[in-house]
Structure formats: structure tokens, C-alpha cells
Amino acid sequence: MMATHGVAGARMGDVRWILVAAACSLALGACSSSHSKSASPPAPTTSVATSTSVTTAPVTATTSSGAATTTTVELPTTSLPCQPVPIPTTPATGPATQQSALLTKVSTQSDKCVDHVIFDYTGKGTDPPGYTLTYGTPPFAQDGSGAPVPVAGNAFIVVKVQPGYGYDFEIGTATYTGPKSITVTGNHVRQVVETGDFEGILTWVIGLSGKRPFLVQATGTPRRQLVVSVA
């Protein structure tokens, strides 16, 4: 299961819009190769980062006689187009769930023009983590204590996951033991900071160089995670 909001490129192979974009690119390439050499050259396109890995997926088509044929095509998993995109309407929200998401890892990746903030989770069930993202205004404070929490940047995406925890109360062990403040040297992201793990709401703030468009992806299987891609 997966929910997406916003626009921009992403690195995850199981994200539908990347698969659709890749399939369209393959279809266009096939069409252009079938034309004669005298055909007019295609119009220039925006720069696209070169794919470094591929995955295969079956594609089913119906012939003119009505028979269905299935072929396997390679789909890029890391191509990230650089193109103007609008800032999404916020808040961006995912489907509600009763399945707790237990945070295990926070990491970042940067491509030619896109930064990805990746939150990995464990927990029972296969639902994607329930999330709400919106632009927030400092100063930020720690949920519960109210202690001030500084976050570097000029614009801030507030990421809330509910029900979300960094601690497994069933076994009495912390599931997230990594840093709660991560400095990032990316295209747009400057810092990622936890501001709350309180009453079933896990909150992180992403500090940006300025207000940017972003894409949200939430997956439940095969990997339970939330990815925020900032373009």
C-alpha cells in the first residue's frame, strides 16, 4: 500500500509515479526508433540524472485481435528529473491507521537536484505510517516539556506520524537510538530535528534553505517507511 502527495522526483523503486514515468519514457523511445532516419529530431528535454540501477516489471498489452501479451521491461529506479514543480497544498495527509509505526532509522540522500529525507519504521501490520506534513513557523518546542528546539533553515516542513513512537512499550526497548538532530549538506535540506515523541505522535522538523516543493511517499510493504523528497 502507498500514499503520495505533492510533486518531484524520488528514488524508491516501488513508487508508482516513477514507474509510470519510466514506462512512458520507454514507450516514447520505442516509437522514435520505429520512425525513418529522416524524421524530425525530438524537442530538447529537461536534464535527467542517469539511472544507476534497474528493476524488471511485467507489462501486459492487448493486440488488435484481442489477445493479451505479457513482456518484461526494465524500469529505472534512481532517475530523478530536474524540472520546475509547484509547491504542494498543505497539509499533506496520508490515510489514518491504527497500526503503530516504530521509528528505527532516519537518513538522507541527495541527487542532482532533489534531497530525500527517509524515515524507516518497524511494527506490526502492513499499513503505511499515518502522516501529516505541513510548513511550520519557528520557534519550535519539544512536545511535552515545551523546551525550545532550534532548527537551522529559512523554511520548515513539520512531519508528524501518528500513531508513531521511537520506543517499543511491549518489550520496553527503544527502537530509535540514532541522533535526534541531523545536519545535512544537500541541495535544499539543512537540518532534520526531532521535536516530539509524545502521546503517540512522532514529530520531526526538516529545515530548508527556503520554501520548496516536496513529494511525500508512504509505503507499508515490503519496506515500511516515509520519504520526503524536496526539489
Keywords:
1 helix, six-stranded mixed beta sheet, single chain, 2 domains, 231 residues, six-stranded antiparallel beta sheet
Please tell me about this protein's structure.
It is a single chain. The radius of gyration is 20 Å and the shape is globular. The protein starts with a strand and ends with a strand. About 32% of the residues have low confidence. The chain has 231 residues and is mainly beta. Strands 1-17-18-6-5-11 form a six-stranded mixed sheet, with no helix packed on it. It has a six-stranded antiparallel sheet with strand order 4-7-10-16-15-14, with no helix packed on it. Strands 2-3 form a two-stranded antiparallel sheet. It contains one helix and 18 strands. The protein has two domains: 61 residues, no CATH class; 148 residues, Immunoglobulin-like, CATH 2.60.40.
